[in-house]
Amino acid sequence: MLCRFLDIQAFQSISTSYFYLKINPAVFLIIAGIILLFLQYLVLKYKKTVLKTTEKEESEALLALTEKLKNCRGNYQALIEQSFDAIYVLDYSGKFIDANSRLCKMTGYTRDELLTRNITDLIDPGQLKTDPFVPYNSKYDEGIIKERRLIRKNGEVFDVEISAKKLTENRLLVIAEDITRRKQLEIELHEAELKFHPLAE
User: Fold this and answer.
1) Is there a domain that residue 194 lies in?
2) What is the CATH number of the domain that holds 107?
3) Does residue 66 sit in helix, strand or coil?
4) Residue 116 gets which letter from DSSP?
5) 32, 65, 181, 182 - which has most CB atoms within 10 Å?
6) Domain final residue, candidates 44, 76, 108
7) What is the pTM of this model?
8) Mean pLDDT in each 10-residue stretch from start to end of the chain (201 residues)?
9) By the 8 A CB rule, do 175 and 86 touch?
10) What angle do CA 21, 23, 25 make, to 5 degrees?
11) Residue 32 shares a structural domain with residue 109
12) Cα distance between residue 115 and residue 119, in whole Å
């Protein structure tokens, strides 16, 4: 639109100059050439200005998006850290990608130590033989819930109930609840039932 307007203006300027000045055609062509070069300069300058404005707007939009992503990540990290349960992320082979402070407290390992380990390093070897860790399969798409016996850094064994679900490609999100106390109560309740069952008969 601007270029078309400028072309019309140029034509009008050239025509007006020729009509009023009644100059030699050669001189007229020189003047016309100068006017056209000047108009081309104005068009180029306009395009550069628009381009700079567009680049500035895109840069500002990118910065705003980056800031939003940082805020989202901050909220995500805060939510993970404040959880009463252990939350961690594994790749499909079982290697730790991320872990919250609750898992660190639960296992006795620091976050950096966990990130160098595989989940199989924390699972009771006896349970691994009967219920091995299975790399990703379609069950993770819907989510799975099961019990695991984990080993703390000091060698102590404890029970957890895990909920695992596919998070993204090659990422599994796992939430683990320490159920050691619940398991102990179940054992005590079972023993009590065995003890008093004969009396009830």
Assistant:
1) no
2) 3.30.450.20
3) helix
4) T
5) 32
6) 76
7) 0.59
8) 44 45 50 64 63 61 67 62 87 93 95 96 94 81 90 95 88 91 84 69 59
9) yes
10) 135
11) no
12) 10
Q: How many CB atoms lie within 10 A of CB 42?
A: 13
Residues 132 and 54 in one domain: no
Q: CA–CA separation, 111 vs 105, rounded Å?
A: 10
Dihedral, CA of residue 109, residue 115, residue 117 and residue 121, to nearest 10: 50
How many domains, in total, are found in the chain? 2
pLDDT in tens, 117-140: 999 999 999 999 999 988 777 778
**Domain, as residue range, for 151:** 85-186
> What is the dihedral angle through the alpha carbons of 117, 179, 108, 152, rounded to the nearest 10 degrees?
-60
- Distance between CA atoms of 75 and 79, rounded to whole angstroms? 6
Residues 59 and 109 in one domain: no
- Summarised one tens digit per residue, pLDDT across range 177-192 is 999 888 888 888 878 8
Statement to judge: residues 91 and 178 lie in one domain: yes
Is 120 in the same domain as 42? no
Which residue do the tokens 């252990």 mark?
A: 86
